[in-house]
Every structure is written in C-alpha cells, then in structure tokens.
C-alpha cells in the first residue's frame, strides 16, 4: 500500500547486552527483552504513542550481516548531534567521501545527515529533511555548501 508507514526495523548483533546498552545510551526506551530468544525491542520517539520500534537480535558471528537505518530528527536537532554523540563516547563517521565536520546533504531528497555506527558496525544515521527543492545534480555535499546554493 502506498500510504503505509514503517513501524519497525531490525538489526543483528553478536552481543545483545552491549547493543542494549548502546541503544539505551542513545535514549531509546527498552520496550521488551526476551532472554530465551536473545532479542530486545525498543520504542522510537514517543513511547506513549508506540508508533515505531527497533528490534535487536543476537546472532552467531557467521550469521551476522551489517545493516543501515536512519533516525529522523528536525534540522535543529541534527545540529546538536555531534555534541550529543560525543558526550556518549560515540564517534561520527565520514560519509560519501566527506568528513564529519558538519552534516552531509543528499541533494536529491534533500536531507541533511550525520552517520555513525553501533558496536557491531551497523551504519546508523540521524537525518533531517530540508524544506527546499531538491537539486539532484549537486550529489552529496556538506550542509554549508548546500546553503550557499540558496544565497
């Protein structure tokens, strides 16, 4: 269905306890933990509304495959991501050949993003949609360069 929304996504880990600590450290609320199945579920956003969920499954190393997902935030929130992650001991990752000194913009969307990794190397992203017309011909560039195109 065209108007369906994503309710949950799942990632794999080789160490569920470390992953639970990591995602709790990001501020996610642990919703349910099943020791016998080695899985933890977290609510994203407002846990009162229970609109989105992340499942983290422990697997053996030979079953592990890295994945990627993005947390949607406002542009104002995105600007505070470096300080937020730094305070938690989490490093930003360079992306698309650009350093992490500022957000990168995917001009085709457009959206500004910061990338980082969880303890298993899953690629995570904080993403803010930008209220301007897409410019796909610009590719991926730093936010300051994107902003210059509108001056």
TrEMBL record:
One Pfam family recorded for the sequence: Glyoxalase
Organism: Sutcliffiella horikoshii
VOC domain location: 5-129
Protein name, per record: VOC family protein
């Amino acid at each position: 269905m065209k108007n369906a929304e994503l309710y949950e996504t799942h990632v794999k880990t080789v160490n569920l306890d470390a992953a639970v600590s990591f995602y709790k450290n990001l501020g996610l609320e642990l919703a349910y933990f099943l020791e016998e199945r080695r899985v933890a579920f977290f609510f994203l956003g407002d846990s009162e509304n229970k609109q989105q969920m992340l499942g983290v499954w422990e697997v053996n190393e030979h079953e592990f495959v890295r994945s990627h997902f993005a947390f949607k935030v406002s542009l104002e929130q995105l600007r505070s991501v470096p300080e937020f992650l730094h305070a938690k001991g989490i490093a930003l990752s360079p992306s698309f050949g650009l350093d992490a000194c500022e957000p990168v913009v995917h001009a085709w969307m457009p959206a500004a993003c910061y990338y980082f990794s969880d303890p298993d190397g899953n690629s995570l992203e904080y993403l803010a949609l930008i209220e301007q017309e897409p410019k796909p011909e610009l590719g991926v560039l730093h936010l300051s360069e994107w902003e210059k195109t509108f001056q």
